[in-house]
Amino acid sequence: MPDIPNFIRESAVVQKNESIAHGVYLMRLLAPQLANACRPAQFLQILTDPGLSPFLRRPFSTLYVDREAGWLDIIYDVIGPGTERLEEAKPGDQFHISGPFGLPFDPPTSKRILLIAGGVGLVPLAFLAWEHPDRRADMVYLMGAANTTRLPNMPALLPNDLALHVATDDGSKGHHGFVTELIAEHIIPNDTTILTCGPHLMMARVADIAAELNVPCYASLENHMACGFGACVGCVVEYKTYETDDLRYRRVCLEGPVVNAHEIVW
Ligand code: FES
Known about the structure:
Helix content is about 15%, strand content about 35%. By secondary structure, the protein is α/β, with parallel strands linked by helices. A seven-stranded mixed sheet has the order 10-9-8-7-11-12-15, with helices on both faces. It has a six-stranded antiparallel β-barrel with strand order 1-2-5-4-3-6. Strands 13-14 form a two-stranded antiparallel ribbon.
């Protein structure tokens, strides 16, 4: 049994819960200890139902915190019983939350920090931009969505001095095509680091392009997290190279969710 990392347990009170795109919601939770502690890409485990359905907590990362007021914002896609419970929540409702778990994104030292997001993967990258105003001028944020109905009002979620470019698969807003098609034009040769979060296929493509361009690339993985603290081994990712067999598969909840995208098997 691994050592269980220290984490906070807090009963969080819903302050608002509103739709920001088709099937996508923003929930504000009053949770002063967690708001104070969480860092970009770390995740919180929310018990979405005090009964047994669903039994397991669900992982969510943080979009923004107001540490003085003690609240934090999360964004979620309604995709199953857990998030359906969240969708039903009203101001004043409470959820038991534990966290923060995992290792955070830190801003790299490169001149250009290219943030590439898809879907609710926008969240940890936005939090990174909020948390590091001193590096914002070096950041370019690329956001991909299927179409405008699935695309939140991005300027409302991001700092207003952050460079933003949008792509939609159907061309209903911004670049017509995949967000990955925008990467090459925003690279500063030999001085760019890519950070990405979003659907698995998108991140795999980002990692491929980064490898072709010889650019460092880190991804925040969105694997299922059952326990969140290393006990269940349900969140492992396979590495391409490993010194010993026990390092071939590593737990995303402990050694991630941020991983070197060039090191893992996509
Ligand atoms: Fe249980 Fe990672 S979620 S080991």
